[in-house]
Model the fold of this input.
Amino acid sequence: MKQISARRPSDAGQVAAADEVHPGGAQNRRAADQPPPGTSRTSGRQAVPSLFVAMMACLGILVVMVASLTGCGQSQAPSSPAQASAIPTVRVIPPSERGEYLGNSACVTCHPKQAAQTQTRHARTLQQVTADVHAKYFSIPARLLDPLEELTFHPQFKGGRCVIQATGPQGTSEAAADYAFGSGAIGYTFLSYAGGRPTELRISHYVNGSRWEFTPGQRMGGQSNSPVGQVLSPNHERTCFACHSTVLVSRGAGLDLQQSIAGVSCEGCHGPGRSHVEAVRIRAPDHRMARLSTMRERLSLELCGQCHRAPDNVDLHAPGMAVQLPRMQSVALSYSACFKKGGLTCVTCHNPHGDAASVTHTEYNAKCVSCHSGPAPQRPCPVQPQGDCVNCHMPSQDVGMPTSPRFRNHWIRAW
Ligand code: HEC
Ligand code: HEC
Ligand code: HEC
Ligand code: HEC
Ligand code: HEC
Ligand code: HEC
Ligand code: HEC
Done:
């Protein structure tokens, strides 16, 4: 069975497609031997053949997805203990494999302790646009002018639809938003299928100040290929959806979004559950589910890093890239001595089934002190051994996004 993956590195065509969407992307390619600025190069994995994926819209940067992401040859549910040790990946599957996925509601019946995951930002990070949730944003009386293109953008809620209108010398164009990317904690970027083509709309809604701004990657000056926004190539469409979904079902060159599972939930991190549930039902000794708790040292880069960026794929020397480091948590953490020498992982601090904000600084700091209290090498802080470790060693930084949301730099060091 041929698996269609959004991130097959051998597919040279995708590189071209990504560069097409984001001109200038090629210059961001990583030179294999460059260390990140200000540090020695992190040891370990080889750079993979480069699939460079433009994601200006999300980050204004370029990344490459790792080979582990492609899920090549892993399109079946794990069927042996050996396969059960593979880190799951978010995949684009043919419709024939959709039955392997059961959806969150099946999982939480037997795993009520993890049920709260379905309410987290991960789970809400991609939603279909509905009047109930989104009309209020489109009702804000906003007008954004791009003087270079002489286009004025205007959100509207009309006829039960959430619409972006672009008015200029050539007349008026409009597109209804179909999908909302982002849980809303920072903001939403909308995708429209008006005319059957996936179009990332030109303006996005931000929580801070509750206002509309140009979508990152589509700022002023006619960088977009349609008046209402950027029409995405099929590969770019898949890449976007892949980092914000649990599983994607392909339909021809595009996606069958009705059959796909939007938002990052159970089977996104754990893999398809059908054979697991069958195994559990017949009380098989192998319950056919990846044992992530036994692979903790691999999780930060191989599981979380699929979406939170893996270090092999990022060239921090590329223009505008270093400032984005706080948004690339897996990359930043991989530069930290705590990670390299102490085995610190994402799940040391984050409950994968909860929201980061539900943990207090006191609790995060307690994690630091759990290592940094004894003798060398994990010495206590010479400056403030009882202070707010996170504030000094994981500073909150502006990454140049509209409305300036701040991100914690996960490169833990003396800043
Ligand atoms: C019919 C009940 C049932 C359903 C439905 C179910 N599970 Fe399980 N699951 C179990 C049992 C029983 C275990 C074994 C618990 C143990 O060994 O402590 C388990 C174990 C697990 C583990 C732990 C694996 C390990 O050893 O670290 C994970 C992860 C898991 N299930 C995820 C899921 C996901 C995701 C779904 C939805 C696709 C799901 N389960 C659906 C009953 C179920
Ligand atoms: C399939 C892609 C994907 C994977 C895998 C993934 N994440 Fe995320 N993560 C996201 C996206 C997308 C968001 C943005 C959520 C939003 O829209 O607010 C996010 C947000 C977060 C946040 C901030 C939101 C919050 O308050 O919790 C944390 C923390 C986080 N992820 C940690 C992790 C960890 C730890 C892992 C690995 C165990 C992981 N993620 C795996 C895609 C992913
Ligand atoms: C490599 C994986 C990846 C790709 C590709 C990706 N995102 Fe994201 N996205 C994330 C992660 C991880 C987060 C949360 C952490 C963060 O914001 O740094 C996020 C957050 C967001 C947010 C929440 C607000 C914000 O900006 O933080 C929006 C909106 C968003 N992405 C839209 C998009 C759109 C639209 C695309 C495609 C054009 C896209 N993303 C492609 C991983 C990805
Ligand atoms: C962002 C990735 C992610 C998502 C989404 C996710 N999990 Fe997990 N889950 C993990 C990781 C990582 C571990 C291992 C945690 C550890 O080692 O502390 C885990 C552990 C588990 C375990 C084993 C429990 C244990 O204490 O060992 C179960 C059961 C489980 N998850 C079920 C679920 C269910 C059910 C859902 C959906 C409601 C879900 N998970 C969603 C990443 C995720
Ligand atoms: C799992 C154990 C562990 C945890 C948890 C941990 N660290 Fe570390 N940390 C280490 C180790 C090991 C080193 C390397 C010590 C050395 O090189 O001698 C280190 C190094 C450091 C350094 C020196 C960095 C450098 O580049 O030399 C700082 C600062 C630091 N940690 C702060 C923190 C803070 C703040 C936290 C919590 C946010 C934290 N650590 C959590 C294990 C840990
Ligand atoms: C030493 C503890 C620690 C580790 C390890 C850690 N984080 Fe965080 N993370 C934090 C803290 C503290 C915050 C800020 C939480 C807040 O302000 O509510 C945070 C916030 C985040 C956010 C939200 C965006 C932001 O900057 O506020 C994301 C996404 C995230 N972490 C992902 C990850 C991923 C992925 C990993 C593993 C590569 C990881 N984290 C490892 C402590 C940690
Ligand atoms: C007010 C800011 C501040 C706070 C709060 C703070 N630190 Fe530090 N820490 C520093 C600075 C500055 C240095 C570098 C000192 C130097 O190089 O002389 C440092 C150094 C360190 C080192 C490296 C020590 C070494 O010998 O290499 C560790 C480990 C560390 N801090 C851990 C922590 C932990 C754990 C906490 C929380 C209990 C914490 N820090 C709180 C500012 C702070």
Summary: Residues 102, 106-107, 109-111, 266-267, 270, 273, 276-277, 280, 287, 289, 291, 293 surround heme C (ligand 1) (CB under 6 Å).
